[in-house]
Design a protein that fits this description.
The complex is a heterotrimer of chains A (about 375), B (about 325) and C (about 350).
Chain A (H helix, E strand, L loop, with lengths): L1 H27 L6 H5 L4 H11 L5 H13 L12 H36 L4 H15 L2 H22 L4 H19 L7 H28 L20 H39 L2 H8 L4 H39 L4 H10 L3 H29 L7
Helix pairs in contact in A: 1-14, 5-6, 5-10, 5-12, 5-14, 6-10, 7-10, 7-12, 8-9, 10-12, 11-12, 12-13, 12-14, 13-14
Chain B lengths: L9 H8 L27 H11 L1 H23 L32 H37 L1 H15 L3 H9 L7 H28 L3 H8 L4 H38 L10 H8 L8 H28 L9
Chain C lengths: L2 E14 L2 E14 L3 E5 L6 H9 L7 E8 L2 E2 L5 H7 L4 E4 L3 H4 L6 H12 L4 H14 L5 H4 L9 H13 L5 E5 L7 H18 L2 E6 L2 H7 L2 E6 L2 E7 H6 L4 H8 L39 H5 L5 E2 L6 E2 L4 H5 L16
Parallel strand pairs in C: 3-8, 3-9, 6-7, 7-8
Antiparallel strand pairs in C: 1-2, 1-4, 4-5, 9-10, 10-12, 11-12
Helix pairs in contact in C: 4-5, 4-7, 5-7, 7-8
The chains are: A mainly alpha (about 375), B mainly alpha (about 325), C alpha/beta (about 350).
């Protein structure tokens, strides 16, 4: 395994170099960094300074060498305003990574769960519902969804929360939801056993009443407005206890994460479903059943475990799309992450920022691919003899 | 396509096993009831595919809806009172939807109905172009890599992998940001083609890799067929299925990517319009004039959804066994 | 000898889009302790479905009627949790293709241990010991190390042996072997069969050997039955069925095998194809292809009944006519057929 990882890492380095060439050629041909300055009335001096700074008087290969020599040493140059790129980029990178990792985590967990249940309970209402939502999310533009969430998930929700008081109606509503969830979960076992269903319903009802009572108490004494925020990763200048700050982070993060995770979730759940259906009808699952082990073990240890293999390869491929989605999500929710760095860079014709963004993204994609490769080798012993 | 030996579908095989005409010369089978009177009609493969597709209800409904939307987008503007470029007097701006302006008007004074239709036109045109272009290039690259293998395959695939390390949207945005002016939409389409051909190439390459090991290719080679003949007459017809499915789904993906691109300002630009641009310009209006936001967005969803269903139906029609792990 | 498995008038139906498939129609047989029962038939004859019904491994859509009794207790209609107690512990099964029948992501030892711990409350270490012991018993060299290997690191024959080991790990009384040698090379086939015999002698398990290969049956089994179109058409001892076939289908099967002894003669394959199990015509299902067919055959399907002896049974109205032929295989020769 160690040799496997090392080999992958070593191969990654030349790939990164080639990627840097590709990226540079792309950016060098993509636009005119002097555009803004050309049209300014007395921009001649600034124009000349810019040409000097970006070495635009030299040929593309020469410029590339100059840039890459600095880049590998950590010098990412200055942006259009003359501010060094690197500190901004570092900050932006952590912001974006937070979002991307959270979204990936959520989408994988939920996607796998829904996929498995859909497959095991094929053709039930759950399956059809999940299929419907998957198709919907496939067709949904990220930015449109984000704006919708912003409106209904946050602004309207916050307005409602600010004015709400939890009456008995509210309590019964929550209790009812608890009942429904409990009933649903009780039905998930391998056979529809009435006993388990009623047990689930009762527990759900009890939990619902408990949560409802808690909420009622909570809302009697406080007024929560702006529970879910839509601008930026955190409230600027927020000072409070650790938990309060965590809550603040969470409140700011929940909507962008949901947005970014939604489409990946749809894809993973469909893939997992198809993969599960495949493995559940395989010969080794039949053998497992013939050994007399419990159905739950057959599904989890045999069908599910092998169904993960093709899905793992897809998760790796999807990371690039997640990064792209992050660009859009950050725009809508005004996060100052890498996406906004990139777009601002494009707008300002800021070569260095754009280059830095592309290189860092490429690096992250390659790293993620290696991780996925490792996971894949772990899941499938047949390919370890690589 | 009809040159391939006629492969019977599943029902056909069942019918044949049921006691179709015994061809060993042992004479007609004793009729023991109406069940034995099956007539086996040999159908060509393309006919079976078409039949299966038309039986897919969801795909048929989606096809109808899509055709209606496309027809509306291209035909209605010819008759509509307002042009998408026309700027109406201030009094008529920010109007709510009404009979004169079914989708209302925006701040500047455009008739939103005309704008939305125009946006739909643009988005559809670009998406179609992108899909066709990407498929052609993807097939060329994928076929070469998958059939000839060796260093051509290695080089092409390394290059594809390399380009894939950078998110498609990022590449497209970098290139597309500066593109303005008339004819810009076609350039945007070209940019998108440059980012889309990779996945098609991958798929086609995979198909070629597996098909080329099949026995009928060996047989063709043994009987002296040239490479070109094998590719065009033997392998390619079998690849048409996955190719069409991939191309169809690519149209949906292209629309979503183009609208995203236009949203961030790197796609279609003013004075032209696309559905994505419309959503972008009107996102802040959501609280006061939600109709400006809803209609373009819903249209994108309808188009992408119908295309996805059609693609699904096509996939079922070409490969009812669904042996591949696909969504 | 105790009666282990008594199958009485078992029928299995599958509802499908094109109609109901009558996969098994009124099959009855008995398996006693220490016996090897051979079940022979083409694909679609219902032999595999019968065994899956015994194991309770049929899909939920299957409709099972009739009776299957294991040690006197009725199995049909049992709750899945009860079936699980029997499966792998009292009755075990091995399947046709060992490559796809073993889970590729777990080691062989792990999979055997899992079988042990499904029915015995032992520690992981003890289960592994048992696993190694069984692998050794079936002839896997260096069993202790091999237990930590994955199925793809085994050869075809070794995999099938591992399957046998896995099936026998809880000392079942009945082993159902569904075409265990079909996916293997001929030389390996002999080894596997030999392993099966050895296991049986060591554990005194009864074996139900299902195959389409008459050669496999000839060398191993004590009694056999021939299945066609979902039902048993002939049953008896190996000698009886091979040397004194009383059902034309059996004759046709025997005549389809190239034999090392009879050189120079022509093979006489049976013309036509097996019938569809959805729309079975009235009468004997073999009638379209039978050289001895008469009107009676077309009207009603013969029940299986005794022929020369009580144990030798055949489902044919004309079994006596068949017994008059010296070499009944000529009935299938070209031109030798009169309708």
């Amino acid at each position: 395994m160690f040799a496997f990882v090392t080999r992958r890492l070593l191969v990654a380095i030349p790939i990164l170099f080639l990627a840097s060439i590709l990226v540079f050629v792309l950016v060098a041909n993509a636009g005119d960094p002097l555009e803004n300055l050309r049209t300014r009335p007395n921009g001649q001096a600034a124009l000349q300074a810019k040409i000097k700074q970006l070495h635009l008087d030299k040929s593309v290969p020469e410029r590339y060498v100059l840039w890459i020599k600095g880049f590998v040493k950590g010098d990412m140059g200055k942006n259009a305003q003359g501010v060094p790129v690197r500190p901004n980029l570092t900050r932006a990178m952590f912001t974006t990574l937070r979002l991307v990792l959270a979204a990936t985590f959520v989408s994988i967990m939920l996607g796998l769960l829904v996929g498995v249940i859909s497959a095991v309970r094929q053709y039930t209402a759950f399956d059809y519902g999940a299929t419907f939502f998957a198709f919907l999310f496939y067709a949904m533009p990220v930015f449109w969804f984000a704006v919708l969430l912003k409106e209904f998930g946050a602004i309207k929700l916050n307005d409602w929360l600010a004015n709400v008081s939890f009456s008995w109606i509210g309590l019964s509503a929550v209790a009812f939801v608890g009942l429904a969830v409990g009933l649903f979960l009780g039905n998930i076992g391998e056979r529809r056993s009435r006993r388990r269903a009623t047990l689930g319903a009762l527990i759900g009802l009890g939990a619902g009443i408990g949560v409802g009572a808690l909420l009622r108490v909570a809302f009697q004494h406080h007024h929560y407005s702006r529970l879910i925020s839509t601008v930026g990763p955190q409230t600027p200048g927020f000072k409070g206890s650790f938990f309060a700050r965590m809550g603040d982070y969470a409140g700011h993060m929940i909507l962008p994460t949901v947005t970014l995770a939604a489409i990946s979730f749809a894809v993973y759940s469909r893939f997992q479903r198809a993969s599960m259906l495949d493995t559940m009808s395989s010969d080794y699952v039949r053998t497992a059943r013939s050994k007399g082990i419990s159905e739950r073990r057959v599904i989890l240890r045999h069908a599910f475990r092998t169904a993960l293999i093709p899905v793992a390869t897809y998760v790796a491929l999807d990371f690039g799309a997640v990064m792209a989605g992050a660009i859009i999500t950050e725009t809508v929710f005004a996060w100052k992450g890498m996406g906004s760095l990139f777009l601002t860079g494009l707008k300002d014709s800021d070569v260095n920022s754009v280059l830095a963004f592309l290189m860092v993204t490429a690096t992250l994609v390659i790293v993620f691919n290696i991780l996925a490769d490792v996971a894949y080798a772990y899941l499938d012993p047949r390919i370890r003899l690589d | 396509m009809t040159e391939i030996t006629k492969r019977p579908g599943p029902l056909e095989t069942l019918r044949r096993a049921n006691g179709a005409a015994d061809d060993n010369g042992a004479g007609p089978l004793p009729a023991a009831g109406p069940e034995r009177e099956f007539t086996v009609k040999a159908r060509s493969q393309s006919q079976m595919v078409v039949r299966r597709f038309f039986r897919h209800r969801l795909a048929m409904i989606s096809l109808t809806v899509l055709v209606l939307v496309a027809a509306a987008a291209f035909i209605i503007p010819l008759f509509w009172k307002y042009d998408y470029k026309t700027i109406l007097p201030t009094a008529e701006s920010n109007a709510r939807p009404s009979w004169t302006h079914p989708f209302g008007t925006d701040t500047i004074g455009h008739d939103m109905f005309a704008q939305t239709l125009r946006g739909a036109q643009r988005s559809l045109e670009i998406a179609l172009l992108v899909s066709v272009g990407a498929t052609i290039i993807g097939v060329l690259v994928g076929a070469t890599a998958g059939y000839f293998r060796g260093w051509a395959d290695a080089a092409l695939m390394r290059f594809t992998d390399l380009v894939l390390t950078i998110p498609a949207l990022a590449i497209a945005a970098t290139l597309g940001f500066q593109i303005r002016g008339s004819g810009s939409s076609w350039l945007i389409a070209a940019v998108l083609v440059a980012t889309f051909w990779m996945s098609t190439a991958r798929i086609i390459r995979g198909e070629f890799l597996s098909l080329r090991e099949k026995e009928f290719v060996e047989a063709a080679r043994a009987s002296g067929a040239s490479d070109r003949r094998i590719i065009f007459k033997h392998i390619l017809p079998n690849v048409i299925g996955p190719m069409i499915v991939a191309a169809t789904l690519a149209v949906a993906l292209a629309i979503l990517t183009e609208t995203a691109l236009s949203f961030v300002g790197a796609g279609v630009k003013e004075p032209d319009t696309s559905l994505g641009l419309l959503v972008a310009t009107n996102q802040r209006a959501f609280r006061t004039r939600p109709w400006l936001f809803w209609y373009p967005g819903l249209l994108i969803i309808v188009i992408a959804l119908t295309i996805n269903f059609i693609g699904d139906g096509l996939r079922d029609a070409f490969d009812p066994k669904q042996t591949r792990v696909r969504a | 000898m105790a009666e282990l498995l008594v199958v009485d008038n078992l029928s299995v139906d599958f509802p499908t889009e094109d109609g109901v498939v009558h996969a098994v129609r009124g099959v009855s047989f008995t398996l006693n302790e220490g016996e090897i029962l051979g079940i022979v038939g083409e694909s679609g004859s219902g032999k595999s479905v019968s065994s899956l019904a015994i194991m309770g491994l049929l899909p939920r859509t299957a409709r099972i009627t009739g009776s299957i009794r294991y040690r006197g207790e009725e199995i049909v209609g049992r709750r899945p949790s009860e079936m699980r107690d029997i499966r792998g512990k009292e009755i075990a099964m091995i399947f046709q293709d060992p490559m796809t029948s073993l889970n590729p992501v777990y080691t062989v030892g792990w999979q055997l241990s899992e079988a042990v711990r499904a029915h015995q409350q032992v520690s992981k270490a003890k289960a592994r010991e048992r696993a190694v012991e069984m692998l050794d018993l079936v002839g896997i060299p260096q069993a202790r190390q091999r237990a930590d290997a994955y199925p793809h690191e085994y050869s075809g024959g070794m995999r099938q042996r591992a399957m046998i080991a896995m099936a026998m790990v809880n000392d079942p009384d009945v082993l159902i072997a569904d075409e265990p040698t079909t996916a293997l090379d001929v030389t390996v086939q002999a080894q596997i069969l030999e392993t099966l015999v050895r296991i049986k002698e060591q554990t005194n398990a009864a074996i139900m050997l299902i195959t389409h290969d008459l050669g496999v049956v000839a060398g191993m089994v004590t009694k056999m039955q021939v299945m066609y179109a979902g039902t048993v058409v002939e049953s008896g001892t190996v000698d009886e069925v091979f040397y004194r076939p009383r059902m034309p289908y059996t004759v046709g099967l025997l005549g389809s095998i190239p034999s090392v002894d009879s050189s120079g003669g022509r093979l006489h394959p049976i013309k036509g194809a097996p019938p569809s199990l959805i729309n079975l015509p009235a009468g004997c299902p073999f009638s379209p292809r039978c050289p001895l067919v008469s009107d009676a055959c077309l009207e009603s399907e013969p029940f299986i009944g005794s022929t020369d002896t009580d144990t030798h049974r055949a489902a044919c109205f004309h079994w006596e006519q068949l017994s008059t032929y010296e070499d009944p295989r000529v009935l299938f020769a070209e031109g030798g057929v009169t309708r």
